[in-house]
Design brief:
4-stranded mixed β-sheet, elongated, alpha+beta, single chain, 16% strand, 48% helix
């Protein structure tokens, strides 16, 4: 015996779809979605990333991770966006133990700051290139020390 084919009209189709939609909405309303404890997640992130951030603006986690990976967590970073152009100043703060500056130079400069103006279009690739340039500027002995003390 041949199967009977059901033909739906536009109104019939709308009725079936509305019924299905109400079923789905009812199921979604009964689902219990656990709330995330944002404070805990932020504290975990802070513990994981020990790069010192001296910026008044949010620093992308990619930048922090790049400094952790290419240098180590003892280095600091500072990001300062410009208000008049699509660029920002990215500064790597070199810790005293890795800096080649004398005590007198350190005092005058108030630290070893390695800055570069980057375009937002450069993004993480520009940041990585700058970090690599700063790393390559250290002596081979200092580079080995930086990597060992990660």
């Amino acid at each position: 015996m041949p199967e009977e084919k059901k033909i739906l009209t536009l109104k019939g189709f709308e009725k079936v779809m509305n019924e299905r939609l109400h079923e789905i909405e009812a199921k979604l309303l009964t689902l219990e979605i656990p709330k995330k404890d944002i404070a805990n997640e932020e504290s975990i992130i802070e513990k994981k990333n020990t790069v010192k951030i001296e910026s008044n603006y949010p620093v992308p986690t990619d930048y922090i991770e790049a400094v952790n990976t290419l240098l180590n967590s003892r280095f600091g970073i500072k990001v300062e966006p410009f208000s008049d152009r699509p660029e920002f100043q990215f500064t790597i703060i070199v810790p005293r133990e890795y800096s080649p500056l004398s005590d007198e130079q350190w005092g005058v400069a108030k630290g070893d700051l390695r800055s570069r103006v980057l375009s937002y279009a450069d993004g993480i690739n520009g940041v990585r290139q700058w970090i690599q340039m700063v790393y390559n500027n250290f002596t081979p002995e200092m580079r080995a020390r930086i990597k060992v003390e990660m």
